[in-house]
């Protein structure tokens, strides 16, 4: 019963955190306007182009993952790697960060790839992603430093007065988000300690982590890495052109909001729901977009991008299942 309670809390806490932040951000929002903007104020051509880059970011990630597995003697099908990525992002909607485990399970089932070794490559991939986002953040911060400083001021993270800080609603949103990150780290440490207790698994994980040193075709690997992050950015930035109230925002504004949104999705809520909205809305207002329009943008864009994740997850599951069924029939 105690284990069941822990698993239930593990599933419900991210949902509760996301719901709390969303409620706080949208408590005074006019939802009657959503349908009008969605059907009459959205450029679906630009949205389709944005979604294309969203799909390609997963495809490039799947291809890069196959490269990191090759030094381990694992050669899964490229389509299986991509389908596993599709499924992992969809799984994260149900239970944040469980996707990293699920995609390793996919290759273990369909290509007999060692689960622990592939998990090590995922750890390497996440470390590489962290380096990439830090480089992008550093470049963006230097490019738009005054905007970041204003963001810190307006969200209550740089206010001299403690009384003013405690009276800011955004302060409590930030606190809840930070708490969520620490909860995620706690579960990751618990997971790591579990693996260390299993004989041989820790060594396999470490071998997977070191696979990056022996990856073949380094230029192609670097291209895949660049393409992943370029697609992530275009997936977000091109949505500016979908609405009259955001189409004039600059490339630099896109970089700032992309960085803010990327850090926001670290908070363990489904697809960053809540913290992502908070970060993007606040930063968009710094560039002159009204609160109502910024809130509309975040609601529609996040909703459509989350729908894409669900559709791709269903596609990945069907493609894997039907492919296995057809192989048995032969």
């Amino acid at each position: 019963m105690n284990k069941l309670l822990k698993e239930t809390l593990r599933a419900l806490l991210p949902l509760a955190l996301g719901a709390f932040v969303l409620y706080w951000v949208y408590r005074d929002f006019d939802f009657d306007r959503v349908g009008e903007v969605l059907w009459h104020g959205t450029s679906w051509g630009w949205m389709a182009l944005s979604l294309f880059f969203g799909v390609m970011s997963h495809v490039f990630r799947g291809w890069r993952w196959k490269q990191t597995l090759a030094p381990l003697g694992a050669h899964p099908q490229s389509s299986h790697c991509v389908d596993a990525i599709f499924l992992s992002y969809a799984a994260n909607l149900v239970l944040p960060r469980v996707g990293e485990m699920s995609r390793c399970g996919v290759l273990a089932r369909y290509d007999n790839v060692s689960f622990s070794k592939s998990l090590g490559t995922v750890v390497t991939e996440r470390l590489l992603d962290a380096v990439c986002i830090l480089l992008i953040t550093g470049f963006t911060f230097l490019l738009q430093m005054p905007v970041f400083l204003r963001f810190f001021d307006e969200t209550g993270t740089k206010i001299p007065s403690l009384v003013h800080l405690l009276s800011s609603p955004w302060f409590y949103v930030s606190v809840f988000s930070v708490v969520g990150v620490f909860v995620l780290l706690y579960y990751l440490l618990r997971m790591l300690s579990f693996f260390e207790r299993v004989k041989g698994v820790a060594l396999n994980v470490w071998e997977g982590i070191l696979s990056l040193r022996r990856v073949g075709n380094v230029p192609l690997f670097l291209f895949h890495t660049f393409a992943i992050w370029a697609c992530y950015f275009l997936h977000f930035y091109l949505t500016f052109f979908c609405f009259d109230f955001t189409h004039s925002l600059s490339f630099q504004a896109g970089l700032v909001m992309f960085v803010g949104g990327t850090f926001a999705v670290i908070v363990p809520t489904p697809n960053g729901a809540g913290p992502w909205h908070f970060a993007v809305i606040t930063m968009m207002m710094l560039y002159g977009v009204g609160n109502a329009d910024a809130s509309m943008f975040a609601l529609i864009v996040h909703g459509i991008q989350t729908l894409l994740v669900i559709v791709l997850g269903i596609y990945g599951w069907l493609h894997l299942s039907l492919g296995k069924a057809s192989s048995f029939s032969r």
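The chain has one domain: 52-322. The CA atoms of residues 96 and 163 lie 34 Å apart.
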